[in-house]
């Protein structure tokens, strides 16, 4: 993928910026990254800047001296690396993480995937229809309406083909 700033070099650094609550990702090369205020040579961890994002959204911030009692990861360490040190960090920083997780993922709990069960139909077209219907349901749940429209069209085309 080419750099979205210069269009000449290979992009190696994804930069996500939040403007008015909307996240936008721009892929930059090593030469353009410093021009945008990103240190060149190393790509930032994908989770780096989570606390800065929380701050920009008006969410509560942990104090600099707040740290996980289990591993010692401090708010400054988290802010710098974007990584938590252990599972207990989620509890320590829960007040700050819950609103962010809810905003990013739609929930602050991991629900996991649902087991659909054994198929009774051996018809490959019916299996495909069932699969697309589940994907459509999930796309609507997460409000990905563009994908939902595409899936709806695929389902309609398969149903028309079955009817013939």
The structural class is mainly alpha
Number of helical segments with 4 or more residues: 6
Tally the beta strands: 2
Strand composition percent: 5-15%
End-to-end Cα distance: 43 Å
Helical proportion, percent range: 40-55%
> Using only CA atoms, what is the Rg?
22 Å
Shape: flat
How would a crystallographer describe the biggest sheet? 2 strands, antiparallel
Sheet with most strands: strand arrangement: 1-2
Spans of at least 5 consecutive residues whose pLDDT stays below 50 are none
Mean pLDDT: 75
Order of helices and strands: EEHHHHHH
Q: What brief labels describe this structure?
A:
164 residues, mainly alpha, two-stranded antiparallel ribbon, 6 helices, 41% helix, 9% strand
Topology:
Elements: E1 13-19, E2 22-28, H1 50-56, H2 75-81, H3 88-92, H4 94-105, H5 124-141, H6 145-163
Antiparallel strand pairs: 1-2
Helix pairs in contact: 1-4, 5-6
Would you give an account of this structure?
The chain is mainly alpha-helical. It is built from six helices and two strands; from the N terminus they run E-E-H-H-H-H-H-H. A two-stranded antiparallel ribbon has the order 1-2. A hairpin with a 2-residue loop joins strand 1 (13-19) and strand 2 (22-28). Helix 1 (50-56) crosses helix 4 (94-105) and helix 5 runs antiparallel to helix 6 (145-163). The radius of gyration is 22 Å and the shape is flat. It starts with 12 loop residues before the first strand and ends with a helix. The relative contact order is 0.08. The mean pLDDT is 75.
Short description:
The chain is mainly α.
């Amino acid at each position: 993928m080419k750099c979205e700033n210069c269009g000449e070099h290979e992009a190696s650094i994804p930069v996500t910026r939040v403007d008015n609550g909307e996240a936008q990702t721009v892929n930059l090369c090593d030469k353009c990254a410093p021009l945008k205020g990103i240190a060149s040579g190393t790509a930032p961890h994908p989770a780096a800047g989570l606390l800065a994002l929380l701050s920009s959204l008006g969410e509560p911030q942990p104090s600099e001296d707040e740290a996980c009692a289990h591993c010692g990861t401090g708010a400054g360490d988290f802010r710098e690396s974007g990584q938590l040190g252990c599972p207990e960090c989620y509890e320590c920083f829960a007040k700050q993480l819950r609103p962010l997780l809810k905003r990013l993922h739609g929930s602050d709990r991991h629900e996991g995937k649902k087991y659909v069960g054994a198929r009774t139909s051996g018809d490959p077209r019916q299996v495909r229809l069932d699969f697309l219907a589940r994907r459509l349901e999930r796309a609507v749940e997460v409000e990905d309406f563009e994908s939902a429209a595409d899936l709806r069209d695929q389902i309609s085309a398969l149903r028309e083909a079955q009817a013939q």
